[in-house]
Batch of 3 targets.
Target 1
Amino acid sequence: MTSPEQAGSVTTAAATESPERAAKRRSATRGAFFAEFVDMFDIYLPTVILTPALLYFQPPGKLDPGTAAIFTSLVFATTLVGRPIGAAVFGALADRVGRRRSTIISVTGFGVITLLIALIPGYATLGIASYWILILLRFLDGICLGGGYTGALPLAMEYSRKSGRGLLGGIILSAFPLAYVVITLLGLASFALFPLSGADSPYAVWGWRVPFVLGALLAFVLAIYYVRSVSESEIWEAAAAAKAEGTSQGGAGRPLLAVLRSSTFLQVFAMMTGFWLTQNLVTLFLPTTVLRNLVGLSNNQLTLALLVAYVCLVGSYIGAGVIGQRIGRRRFFMIGGAAIATVGVALMAVLVNGKGLPFGLIVLVVAVFSVVVTAPWGVVLPYITERFRTDVRASGFGLGFSVSVVIPSFYAFFLEGLGGLMPYAAAVLVLLAFGGVLGAVGAAAGPETKDVDFEDTVPTS
């Protein structure tokens, strides 16, 4: 473990970067990218792979639409509830026992749980209990998924050169759209190989299980990689040693309380709530309501449009990270929020009134809209980690990144409420503009962070 006397030399080591440290940085970067990919892969498994097979867990006969919607929503809602819990639990663990150890525990956990999901018998065997077992396992999976990136991503940031955090953050977060592309292609292959025509069809009985087994194997490979190849953060080790010697400036004995009581968390929470709201309108509302119901795309057209958009996002996340490093993360968020509230709103207006437009034009608008609205996500990783001290960084990142998703998850209720005051299409535009403005204002309330040294205390606004 790094001694307290070495704490001040970490910055110098990062600047000169010995071959040994460079190797540690590369290993941590690969691990964080893979962790983000596996996390998003597992998140999208129910959306893309399991949804067509949910009838396998349900009573025979056609359910009424309301009951069917409740059954389906529970699979996704329980995971969303579990993620913030996992971020809090594993964030505190990462601050106390280390980023590497916390990552290994959480990744192994969601690997085991994903494998158990793949083995669940259906309604014909267990009755309705099979569905509740699925719900319980998805909740536990969400807890472990919430912890999977809470240790891995701050660890990679703490090994990064200060000047390279923007690029690195963009590369790591680009694993999110890449995971969507891969899981969608895997879904298309599964649908083609295993026919789906009822609860007793090959896909419903066992075809959906293959991608879940693959997801579990990816998690186990990631855990083994961290055990064998990733070193603990030197910066965290120095902070832990300083705490043991009683020279720490923080209150890391209770990292969660320290974070929740800070004005820094409130500022990050406000900003991220805005950007989560706009993100949900891209990832959830756009495909399910706008493109399918309002524009009237077929399943194949919808899949193609989203694949093109998400391929574009892989590059745009990286580009956003680089730009944020150059002009400043705070400024990038403020410009990005304003762009969402203007350009993004204009593009959404085209889409909600897009029935009858040429398909090629729709694909182009969807791709540009997705890039504009999700641009801030290429910058959030370095920004949030830079906003918190080392002794509470994992907790701060986990809470700031995940707890802020809760309120935006109820976007459908907000739209319903606004729909009573104005046309539904206008309500969508108002909610999108509000999210962009909230993200920009939240960023403006905080400081610039790109020149923050991780050994320093938390920056103040």
Target 2
Amino acid sequence: MNFNKITEADIESLIEILDSDRVTLKEDISEDYSHDELAELRVYPELIVEPENTEEVAQIMKFASNRNIPVTPRGSGTGLCGGAVAMEGGILLLTTSMDEIIEIDEENLTASVQPGVILMNFAEKVNDLGFMYPPDPGEKSATLGGNVLTNAGGMRAVKYGVTRDYVLGMEIVLPNGEIINTGGKVVKNSSGYSIQDLMIGSEGTLGIVTEITLKLVPMPKKALTLLIPFDSLEEAIGTVPEIINAKIVPTGIEFMEKEVLLAATDYLGKEFPDTSAPAYLLLKFDGNDKKEIEKQYEVAADVCLANNAYDVYIANTDERQDVIWDTRGALLEALKAVSELDECDVVVPRNRVADFVNFTHRLEDKHNLRIRGFGHAGDGNLHLYTLKDDLDDQTWQQRNKAVMGELYAKSREMKGKVSGEHGIAIAKKEYLHEDIGPMQLELMRGIKNTFDPQNILNPGKTV
């Protein structure tokens, strides 16, 4: 890819569009902006810009298009696949200053936001008004723009779905600087090809989203959580299809192992209700009818006990539930605190999750590499982490590559997919290409070329 390097004249032009306080030169760029959470991939941009509105983003993209300079959009940098890394240098465009909640429309149950709004802040704001934004990925410091561009899922996906299900409209700046609008506050739309759906999950390769219209739902009045210990992870996950077949719909069904749980409790410095069992399921139920919720959790409890659960602990206060779900949300950070790691978030049919977990245990022995996992048992999305521990770099890279190759191959064999919610970017590109085959890859490349014929927007990612 032959891009132009940034010159002094380019810097002056960008300062005219913004101002000197929102343009950071290479020598002043923090190391944090050379990587995302895929820590081993480090590339510095030549320049950082921080626009505050759509018009500034459009001017930056027109300038970059005219000068053939690559642009990489970046939110909080919490991605796990290298999506926010400026692989070709150029301009790193931060959306974090575009952090306004523009409107919460209580009559239409919608919210309009800029892409730099932090998920946690947004969720608190709408909760205070009696509403809920259902997507609930583990990384609460991520931006809503980042969530949209990776189609983030999370721990409520079993009942409520993923980010795509809550995006009603967008304002988008295309790579040439043109601005388009899709959707809006309408709840139905069958008006031609869905540019909006192409944008969701595109990881910043097709356009820069500058405003998002999101669907809200009324906040459920009641919620409770079941913590269910099992003798093995295989028994725990093997119970999930029976829970689903019992015709109940939990808000979420999560799984975790004792070793990872203990790491999280140490990391948070919090006591957990029970840490004695080798493996656990977490089930959450919510709704407005207390009796209906109780009926559902009693059915779930009976299914689990019939499948050799040690016990069923009921957390029915906000404090108890917060401890459990805060711990679940800290599992990844706890693993990162003890070892360098790599991640795989394959998704497989729900009834194959237990088989896949068994397969990872065999891989551990085969390659002598620790693999730890947790994830969304209710939707088949596994979060698997290979741990470097005290291995030297060469041994780590060799073993890790071998394990990753087998994990993705097993996912294909089980009719699964490369990523459930973390995206592709750099880290999973070769596995995506193997998974979708040459015809589908060519179609994706055609879409990229239509939106971005110069390939200046987040080049080197996905396709």
Target 3
Amino acid sequence: MHRSRYAAALVLAILAGTLTFAPPVRANGNFVFYPTNDSYVSASAPNSNFDSQPVLAVAGSPTRISYLKFSVTGLLDPVIHARLRIHVSTIPDAGSRTGGTVQRSETGWLETSLTYTNRPALIGSPLGAYGQVTANTWYDVEVTAAVINNGIVSFGISSADANGAYYDNRESGSTAPQLLVETGIPGTGENVLLAAGDIASCDRDTDEQTARILDREPGTVAALGDLVYEQGTPAEFANCYGPTWGRHKARTKPAVGNHEYLTADAAGYFGYFGAAAGRPDEGWYSYDMPAGGWHIIVLNSNCSKVGGCHVGSPQERWLQADLAANPARCTLAYWHHPIFSSGDRERAELLPLFQALYDADVEILLTGHAHQYERFAPQTPTRVDDPVQGIRQFVVGTGGRSLQPDFGTIVPNSEIRNGTTYGVLKLTLVPGIYQWRFLPVANQTFTDSGAGTCH
């Protein structure tokens, strides 16, 4: 049975109550928790309580430590991510060159009686740190290791820098601290794909920032083209890409971009990745995820370099054969140039390849080229919203090279856009289901998450 018709029949059966089994995995959940207690302590007044103060203070001279306690409830699925989000106050000198280090703390304290003398102990290694912070701005730190399940969790924020920071507390209304928790499909590394394009350049360090996301996240790395600037030379791959994203070369499945072809025949790219990039005269290949049952197709969107992308072209014929050989799998494809984009970077010549993917019920297309993040609703090749069989496209040109904050005309079915945040898209892929989350670089707060099902 055609997969889209099977999915429709399954939905009707569920609605009719004729199925007796539950769905295997719930969709992801997003939770926001606010502190039940928060305050700070100061070594300069060891027996004083500062609960009446309108801010939380963090500094090294005198030592000031802020504490926040949360009651986490209602979680039904595994915790995927947790972030401690705080807002820098608007009082004078609230910002700092050092925002403070976050650790877990003991939970047996109350804001009304907390002092430096009876302060709870900080526990374990640092979970993360706020770097330079600016007044009237939100900042996040990843605290997933501390949020295991439902229960009470407490954090301390400390700093050795005399240049202190001041944050809004729980009485601050819309700028009160938040613990953001996402639950859903557990990622094992073997079922995780980490994707971004437009990555490295020797004249900046933002690719190092995105590479640090890869350092902490297990999974297959999908590098979505334009991996090193400006011309993809062997020297640029060795000296600019190699020290950052190249740390994860062994688990990278790359796609070739247009900047790679500024070196004849993309020789720097194919020489750097070898057989992992496919044949040098093609640049397309496919693979299966180690777990999760997903088939992944990598295509070359530089149509003029490989005999075109039209119906009957070598790449289109190969794609049809690969899809026919994998008819029952959940399928994801990626290439460099977007077929849809509000960033004025669309490539109409890719439509025959997109049509082939659509006809075969492919679920997801990942692209780069526009130095932005954009997520689309599932749609047809003619831009018609199609939740049953449509392909969901992501543009993830946020790997580090540069960003394009301005969007042009917002095209149909565009659901969310951001042009100011570097980061990596994390996809967790299990049989019949996918979950996405955009992981921003440190001290950035934009994210996007959700879940979908295979056709």
